[in-house]
Amino acid sequence: MIETQGLTKHFKDVRAVDGIDLTVAPGELVALLGPNGAGKSTTLRMLTTLIPPTSGTARVAGFDVVRQQREVRLRIGYIGQGNGAGHSQRGRDELISQGRAYGLGVKDARARAATLIESLGLAEVADRKVSSLSGGQRRRLDIAMGLIHAPDLLFLDEPSTGLDPQNRANLQEHILDLRARHETTIVLTTHYLDEADSMAERVIVVDRGRIIADDSPQRLKAEHVGDLITLGFGHEADAASAASTLSGLHPVREGTRLLISTQGAPRRVTGMLDDLRAGGSPAVEVEVTRPTLDDVFLKLTGRSLREGGTAETRELVEV
Amino acid sequence: MTTLITDTRTVFSRELRPVLRDPFTITFAMVQPLVFLGLFTPLLPDDSLQWFVPGIIVMSCLFASSMTGSNLLFEIQTGSHERMLVTPLRRPALLIGRALKEIVPMFAQAALIVAVCVPFGFRFNLAGALLGLIILAAFCIGLGALSYTLALASKNQEWLFWTVQQTLIFPLLLLAGVLLPIENGPGWLRALAKGNPLSYVVDAERALFGGDIWTSATLAGVIAAGATAALGLWAGVRAMRNSD
């Protein structure tokens, strides 16, 4: 569905996108994850024909994004960061003219608009001025506009930015539902870690215009970080003896606590507790921390995504 | 399937819809030049209506189409322009549709102006006037496209749009002999007027409204309007392709 080679975009001296090779197969749901300014949106803007690449090539839905722009545009849907619907317009009118732009007849455009208004829960506000809609309603209207021609490939640029948690969850549901029902290929950018984690089967971590990791969230976490088991003991002596019992797992002792970095922690921890009890130094507390994509990013770049890309050291790194 | 014409219609009707939904503003805008005409023509020598009315029509279209980019500025900020750029709408249709939204109400206004002036002795040739409006539309599409281009260039600095628009519109107007004849001016001013495409359009309008259809003035007007349209569309399409 998407194939890029050495895709690059320079703005004056800034290498916003610096040689991206990317292949997305039909039906995939891919999240581009990275801090602000990593080049996610610029990549998306090249793939959607909004800006020409400085160098490299990209084929989207089978066509070249520079030489066959119209063919690409006919086949993709795009939901940008802003509001697609004009603020002085009415939602239903915008949906109909969007349908007309994709070549639907008046009747079909009306019918399609009505269907989308219904399925995105916009019936009450579709005939109001867009400027009077709430943020969440506008975002749903944007989604409806992006879907008017039932594209096989949908791009979403930071779809849930600025939405409250309830609207975010609602939006994510709509996207997943779309995927399940129509097998739409979906590429979205996000800097929300949980969003990438919960929605995408494939996360592409982008930093400074380059792809630094590309895998399923589970595998990214397992491969780059692993789980963290924290065991608490009554006395330092117990902790020390437990450390020798579990020496095969290279625990790090911090006072009365042991920190163990491992894979598959939830399964392993029960056996571990049995071993400790048998060894005479039972744990009194146990905590299993599963890694987040932020931990992956931190591990890969030495910077945290949560802090907008600034350096932040965390306990986990020391383990 | 879509064509340049259906795409233009899509853009045009989208643009016009909010205007039609708010008839107060449009009525107000329509009546404005009548006030202008009512206050200005008494100052002119007798029989100058024949000379002045085509100029007023050109002036309203000029002002309106130079504003094409102003609505766009807002839509660039909110994101709806970007959304339209990703659709398969043909790029010239985006330019023409938006310019036409400014021009078509002005043509309705032209009809109103003519209707009001006829009882005061204004005479016009219908075929000539219609041809004149087509020429004017071509010129205004070009100007509207340039206004669109200017809006794209000033998307992060709105003041730039207004500064350039205001700086250019009045010299363009005055140097075309819209309000006062150029013939009696000094040589340098006449030379500048000769370089102004709008001069030829205004001359053509006066000749055509007066019934002189097959003249060199008409031909010069067609060429000036056609060249402006071509330049505007070229610049606009190019700006859309390269804007980031």
TrEMBL record, chain A:
Its main location: membrane. It is found in: Cell membrane. Keywords: Antibiotic resistance, ATP-binding, Nucleotide-binding, Transport. It comes from the Bacteria. GO terms for molecular function: ATP binding. It is a peripheral membrane protein. Signal peptide: none annotated. The keyword Transport applies. Residues 2-233 form the ABC transporter domain. This is ATP-binding cassette domain-containing protein.
UniProtKB/TrEMBL annotation, chain B:
It is found in: Cell membrane; Membrane. It comes from the Bacteria. Residues 16-243 form the ABC transmembrane type-2 domain. The chain crosses the membrane at residues 24-45, 51-74, 103-122, 128-152, 159-182, 213-237. It is a multi-pass membrane protein. Keywords: Antibiotic resistance, Cell membrane, Membrane, Transmembrane, Transmembrane helix, Transport. Belongs to the ABC-2 integral membrane protein family. This is Transport permease protein. It comes from Paractinoplanes lichenicola.
